[in-house]
Design goal:
Layout (H helix, E strand, L loop, with lengths): L2 E2 L19 E3 L5 E5 L8 E3 L6 E2 L4 E5 L9 E2 L4 E10 L5 E9 L20 H10 L12 H4 L10 E5 L9 H8 L1 H15 L3 E7 L6 H11 L4 E7 L8 H9 L14 E5 H12 L6 E7 L7 E6 L21 E4 L6 E3 L12 E5 L17 H5 L6 H9 L3 H6 L10 H5 L6 H26 L5
Parallel strand pairs: 1-12, 2-15, 10-11, 10-13, 11-12, 14-18
Antiparallel strand pairs: 3-9, 4-6, 5-8, 6-7, 8-9, 14-15, 16-17, 16-18
Helix pairs in contact: 4-5, 4-7, 9-12
This protein binds iron/sulfur cluster (2 copies).
Length: about 450
């Protein structure tokens, strides 16, 4: 099988040995879950329950008050009693309203799922509604509501679906576990997405370090017997191969234009875990209430792939299930070490898009102290998006947002490659994240002013 890739990128130490090939272990019943009501990109949710209410696993507990496309409800991941509704620290290091449910172990088997829905006979609108009602967002990235991604606006055509199983971040082995343990659900989810979008061709993209999974997935494709053109695309193991733009370039040889989306080159990319969640929303009526993730790193004595209810915190895990070497714990990262967020505490809930929790020792982290830029150009040579990180950084430091935009800030995928190679250890990607948030805020403010001046025309 041919192996494709994209230009530039990094060869990173994989650090996956601790969890590679390990089966997914179910998290034991926990005393509580802390469920953030806003885990998606879009209009904010409001709680639908009150303190003291009894809730059942799968019951909707938060949704948008204003109906709109960019919404995704949140469901109870355990049965129990709502103890508090209050702001808690989340993986993005901001406080957000969470619903805290005290688990009732006697009701562990109870569930309030939706009735199953036949994806092959329901209408396209019913299928999109089911995906929204299940609260499914992209589980590998920014949490964009999936029903929106599967519904291209007029004028946009899609001819290729890419299932993203590249998993290029060090340490993470979640997608590999999903592809190993649930290939039938992966293919079912992919076929559902193809039916909704009317697309006949799909490629399951994975790095060549997972090539041994290909025969098993190919067997599932044959068993599915849907007549759809689904194939496997192997990519060179190279960071950030799992980025949408890189995967599209590698597998379809198409370039997403500056400021554009995969749809602009007729592609939709979905993480493999998201496709499994889609399949379960139809076959079981199950909302997105749990997810597989990797917990690893040198300060984790029991590295493993786990299935955890949304809202679980590793600080609530029994020590025989998860043993943390507190004395050597230097840094906690939610997500992968390159694109994830460093957080101040392990007592932060797992969200729908938490692909891993990495507990790092000092030896695993990069030096903290920033030096001075020596104009070596390494960040430019290694940027997979062909941007000039050094210029963006100078512009942001001097508060010149226009210049930062000209240098490519909106096209930065926050892969962290520039920070990784910078000999001065300048926190480039952290600055770009903050810069992009500021840019979003400015845009939102401008849209608000336009809306005020001419209601309904924004
Ligand atoms: S500028 Fe952005 S896209 Fe380029 S290497 Fe840095 S983080 Fe990645
Ligand atoms: S890699 Fe670091 S030191 Fe080198 S040019 Fe870029 S910012 Fe400056």
């Amino acid at each position: 099988m041919a192996v494709s890739t994209f230009k530039r990128g990094l060869k990173l130490p994989a650090r996956k040995q601790a969890t590679e090939g390990k089966s997914v272990e179910l998290v034991p019943v926990l005393p509580q879950v802390v469920i953030p009501i806003n885990q998606h990109f879009g209009a904010p949710n409001e709680p639908l329950v009150n303190v003291g209410d009894h809730v059942t696993r799968g019951q909707k507990i938060a949704d948008a008050v204003t109906p709109g496309p960019l919404t995704a409800p949140v469901h109870a991941s355990v049965s129990g009693t709502v103890k508090k509704i209050e702001p808690r620290l989340q993986q993005n290091n901001t406080g957000g309203i969470c619903i805290i449910i005290e688990t009732d172990p006697a009701e562990a088997a109870g569930q309030a799922f939706m009735p199953p829905l036949d994806p092959w006979t329901c209408t396209r609108e019913e299928a999109l509604e089911r995906i929204r009602d299940a609260g499914i967002i992209g589980m590998g990235g920014a949490g964009f509501p999936v029903h929106v991604k599967l519904n291209p606006p007029p004028g946009k055509t899609v001819d290729l679906i890419i299932a993203d199983g590249a998993e290029c971040e060090p340490y993470l082995t979640t997608d590999e576990a999903v592809m190993t343990e649930k290939p039938h659900l992966l293919i079912t989810g992919l076929a559902i997405v193809m039916r909704i979008t009317g697309v006949r061709r799909a490629i399951i993209g994975m790095e060549d370090n997972k090539a041994s999974l290909a025969p098993m997935i190919e067997r599932e494709i044959r068993l599915n017997d849907s007549g759809l053109d689904i194939s496997i695309g192997l990519c060179r193991t190279r960071y950030p191969q799992g980025g949408e733009k890189m995967l599209i370039k590698a597998l379809a040889d198409r370039e997403v234009p500056s400021g554009g989306l995969p749809m602009d080159v007729h592609c939709i990319v979905q993480n493999v875990g998201t496709l499994v969640a889609i399949a379960e929303a139809f076959t079981l009526g199950k909302p997105l209430i749990d997810r597989d993730l990797t917990v690893s790193g040198g300060a984790c004595k029991t590295p493993k792939n786990i299935r955890a209810p949304i809202g679980a915190m590793i600080t609530d895990f029994p020590p025989e299930f998860m043993d943390i070497d507190e004395g050597n714990l230097k840094k906690i990262i939610f997500g992968g070490p390159m694109m994830g967020n460093a957080v101040a505490s392990a007592a932060i809930p797992i969200q729908k898009n938490t692909s891993g929790i990495i507990l790092m020792t000092k030896a695993e982290t990069l030096a903290d102290a920033e030096g001075t830029c020596i104009r070596c150009g390494r960040c430019i040579r290694n940027c997979s998006c062909r941007l000039s990180p050094v210029s963006m950084n100078i512009a942001l430091e001097s508060g010149d947002m226009d210049e930062a935009i000209r240098a490519g800030l909106p096209d930065c995928i926050e892969c962290g490659s520039c920070s990784y190679v910078c000999p001065a250890r300048i926190k480039l990607v952290q600055r770009f994240r903050v810069g992009k948030q500021r840019l979003q805020a400015v845009k939102a403010q401008a849209a608000g002013k336009r809306e005020a001046a001419a209601p309904g025309k924004v």
